[in-house]
Design goal:
Number of helices of chain B: 0
Largest interface: A-B, 21 and 25 residues
Helix content of chain B: under 10%
Largest sheet of chain B: 7 strands, mixed
Number of strands of chain B: 11
Order of helices and strands of chain B: EEEEEEEEEEE
Order of helices and strands of chain A: EEEEEEEEEEEE
Distance between the termini of chain A: 41 Å
Largest sheet of chain A: 6 strands, mixed
Shape of chain A: globular
Helix content of chain A: under 10%
Oligomer: heterodimer
Number of strands of chain A: 12
Shape of chain B: globular
Distance between the termini of chain B: 36 Å
Strand content of chain A: over 45%
Chain lengths: 114, 115
């Protein structure tokens, strides 16, 4: 069965701290896609990144970086020098076996204080 | 990415009534998805709606409770029928961005409270 686990329910940091959000996934597929979404208090889901299983290169986008490791089935997300605007719920997701929809983890609530 | 709008953005409804949520996309898409996010929880797929065919429902969701329409390639509706307080959730519409489920964009959501 496919599953996404985000073990961290809530994280609180102070501005300018670095923070890593963990994501562990389970799938029997050899080809799969992983995602991260951000959900600010407004409720809308914001797409952050998609990564396919063949590309294990780490990716950096500004203050965001992602570490994909197939050996440990993990796709962790790091925010460098966090800001108050980063406060949100962050979801990791995996495409389901049928390739028709996303399976979401339970989310990690990040609170960044000034 | 597609621009997606949902109506209403929020509503408070009485138990036993029904609410229809609309999802409008600014471009034609084949696949549209409806998700539910219960308070403090993650997102769960309700159904996939392809234009010209019946919606495909996930385990635990039935057409009588969540009828879906997909009259064209830019629009879909989800009805929450005979509501109970357990239906209080955010309902999100999502569309594929050209690569099916491999690229999904979400609407702003409809926040439903059932009293």
């Amino acid at each position: 069965a496919q599953k996404v686990t985000q073990a961290q329910t809530e994280i609180s940091v102070v501005e300018k701290e670095d923070v890593t959000l963990d994501c562990v996934y389970e799938t029997r597929d050899t080809t799969y896609y992983l995602f991260w979404y951000k959900q600010p208090p407004s409720g809308e889901l914001v797409f952050l990144i998609r990564r396919n299983s063949f590309d294990e290169q780490n990716e950096i986008s500004g203050r965001y970086s992602w570490n994909f490791q197939k050996s440990t089935s993990s796709f962790n997300f790091t925010i460098t020098a966090s800001q108050v605007v980063d406060s949100a719920v962050y979801f990791c997701a995996l495409v389901n076996q049928a390739g028709t929809a996303l399976i979401f983890g339970k989310g990690t609530t990040l609170s960044v204080s000034s | 990415s597609a621009v997606i709008s949902q109506k209403p953005s929020r509503d408070i409804c009485q138990r036993g009534t029904s609410l229809t949520i609309q999802c409008q996309v600014d471009s034609q898409v084949t696949m549209m998805f409806w998700y539910r996010q219960q308070p403090g929880q993650s997102l769960t797929l309700i159904a996939t709606a392809n234009q010209g065919s019946e919606a495909t429902y996930e385990s635990g969701f039935v057409i009588d409770k969540f009828p879906i329409s997909r009259p064209n390639l830019t629009f879909s509706t989800l009805t929450v029928s005979n509501m109970s307080p357990e239906d209080s959730s955010i309902y999100l519409c999502s569309v594929e961005g050209g690569r099916g489920a491999y690229e999904q964009y979400f609407g702003p959501g409809t926040r439903l409270t059932v009293t």
